Amino acid sequence: MTERLRDIPRRFIALAVIGAVATWYLGQRTWWNPWLEGTENSLSPGWAELVGDVATLVWAVVPLVALLRPWLALCAALVPYLLLCVVSVQDEIPVIWALLGSGRAVPITLLVAVAFAAMVGVWHSKRVAAAFAVAYLVPVAGYCLGFHAFLLPFGDQVDSQYATVGSNLVTFAAYGVVLGIALGIAELLRRGVLKDRRAEELETRSKEMERESIASAERARLARDLHDVVAHHVSLIAVRAETAPYTVDDLSPAAAGVLEEIASDSRTALDELRGVLGVLRRSDEAPALSPLPQADQIGDLIEQARAAGGDVSWQPADLSAVTPSAGHVAYRVVQEALTNARRHSPGAPIQVLTLPANGGIVVQIVNRQEENDGTEVVEGRGLVGMRERVEALGGVLTITAGPELVVHAEIPAEGR
């Protein structure tokens, strides 16, 4: 039930609340005796006021019930009306006519409740709204045919028993127009809600596509970087395998044959890597021609940040054992974290930690966020790039928001 209530737009909930309050308020301002004077009923006339209050309360909750259970709300609206009509029918009037209301008078608050319920029902379906519209028109028809009067708030009463047929038709049409206007307003509200929801869905879908585009572009850049690193090592393997027969003495023919196969496989792998790189580089971006930065160049990033006026603390560490791929990713993580810190918290102190770990590296960057209230960090292009690079090597990146923004990356060596 909670999920269904969340799906209902706020404007329709407000409409139901207004209808309930209006029905109860008008009912309390209407003097109503549901029994015919001088008619004996199964209930004592002394209960009339209580029965009237109960019926008014039931009608007041009808718009609220229509939010979740429209058919139950329809029964709640009609059952008190029909029961009161039946128990107050006069002997000379056939009971069948009680369906149109043979009581002395019917409070117009019934029409108010059913009209608001019909407006709420528009959100569910046209069939629900039509059912409430019929329930609205039944008492109106009884009034126009002279079977009952309408009680208005503050003691007023209107009766069409002695009116002409033409005037009754005009009255019926006027009540129908009022209902039509109410349903038209509800339909406009429904269309507005659907339009807003479609706009939200399109915006969400657009953001998802943008994130996917950023991630795909970053994966392509990462693949190019990794290609350069892997191609370098594979080419070294090929060169060493090809030159081994000339640099190593007493090499057996079998070993020379194995080395020749290794060199051949290495050249094949390089050709395949070049083919993959050609596909990845089909973009407007020109490929970088400079060597890829490694972990031992993180110190250069720190010095550049300090030269730009940043308060960066870093304890130098021996990062020579960090593998090229892990070192390059660590370099990019530190670079992006320092850029974000300068952009969002200029002048705030920054702490950088780099720890080598079995060929991999652990990187942590901490900086104070002056304007951060502890809410979730929205990942843009830079943070998405960080995550893609780290996870591509099987690592883990965590970003913790709060008074301090903590970027923690655990980057393993290749193949671990």
From TrEMBL:
SUPFAM superfamilies: ATPase domain of HSP90 chaperone/DNA topoisomerase II/histidine kinase. It catalyses: ATP + protein L-histidine = ADP + protein N-phospho-L-histidine. The chain crosses the membrane at residues 12-27, 47-66, 71-89, 95-123, 130-152, 172-189. The keyword Cell cycle does not apply. InterPro entries: HATPase_C_sf, Sensor_HK_TwoCompSys, Sig_transdc_His_kin_sub3_dim/P. Residues 218-284 form the Signal transduction histidine kinase subgroup 3 dimerisation and phosphoacceptor domain. Keywords: ATP-binding, Kinase, Membrane, Nucleotide-binding, Phosphoprotein, Transferase, Transmembrane, Transmembrane helix, Two-component regulatory system. Its EC number is 2.7.13.3. This is histidine kinase.
